[in-house]
Amino acid sequence: MTIVPFEPVPALAGGILIGLAATILLWLNGRIAGISGIAAGAMEEHGGERLWRLLFLAGMIAGAGAVYVLWPAGAVLHSGLPLWAVLAAGVLVGFGTRLGSGCTSGHGVCGLGRLSPRSLIAVITFMATSIVTVFVVRHVLGVAS
Amino acid sequence: MIHLVSIVAGLLFGAGLALAQMTDPARVLGFLDLTGRWDPTLVFVLAGAVATTLISFRFVLRRPRPVFAPAFQLPTRRDIDARLIGGAVVFGVGWGVAGFCPGPGIAALALGSVVPLTFVVGLAGGMILYRFTARP
After folding, report:
1. Chain B 12-71, CB below 8 Å of chain A: which residues?
2. Which of B25, B79, B92, B110 could make an S-S bridge to A130, C-beta 3.0–4.6 Å?
3. Keyword Membrane: yes or no (chain A) (predicted)?
4. Domain extent at residue B77
């Protein structure tokens, strides 16, 4: 196994920013920063319950955009997949995160932070499944994803 | 104040994802691909995020209530059931195919590329599909 060039300092700093975002949302508003739950609620809820979720999601896009403006070298996206596969993957992620009550942020960042056994099981399960999936896609099917 | 907090938390969350390059599916797939050329980026991101919440949540959840809301709204279930496992499996397959989970997929909309846009359309579609077929 070889290791690709990567930047540990921005990665660690980015992770800490994500943790701080989850901290202020819980400390000040009493809410878990689980993005799949927030996204679903933004579609299903009404009034103030919808508004805070829409504002959070808009903030996420703006926050990422601000980093790209200040650090254009970071504004990269590599994907070798056909768009129909990206769409299908999106459907699986949307359905699966609702069925399993969370994603990388809700179960990962927040659930592990709360020492939730359900979240630990969920994280182990989706990590293992995604590792197997990447192996099948890249090394069995030979798709340069 | 709740709404201002939501915007600020969202800004920090999105900035963190972009700074950590989690909005590039190649970084995520490179981490999940253990047999190829491995990309350790996600280890540092998750370590930074979980180390922060492990420490901060201990203090936050010791308080009687959040600052601007009447009560903490936390998941109360403790049981491991088939929906939790099945959902995590379906999510893991989608994540392994696209290299996007919900947060990075939505934050990557800022790139103006058709790839995250397509992912987010699918994401919304999958959530709507769940709502009308599988919600208890």
Report:
1. 12-27, 29-30, 32-42, 44-54, 56-57, 60-61, 63, 65-71
2. B92
3. yes
4. 2-133
Per the structure, the count of domains in chain A is 1
What one-character DSSP code corresponds to residue A109?
I
A65 CB within 8 Å of a chain B CB? yes
Q: Is A49 on the interface with B (CB under 8 A)?
A: no
Residues 6+ apart with CB under 8 A from B118: A83, A86, A87, A90
Q: In total, how many domains does chain B have?
A: 1
- Tokens standing for residue B109: 């909309």
B100 closest CA partner among B125, B117, B83? B117
- Asked whether residue A1 is domain-assigned, the answer is no
Q: Is residue A2 part of a domain?
A: no
**Local structure of residue A111 (DSSP, 8 states):** I
pTM greater than the 0.90 cutoff: yes
pLDDT tens per residue across span B70-106: 999 999 888 999 999 999 999 999 999 999 999 999 9
pLDDT surpassing 80 at residue A1: no
pLDDT single digits (tens) A50-75: 999 999 999 999 999 999 999 999 99
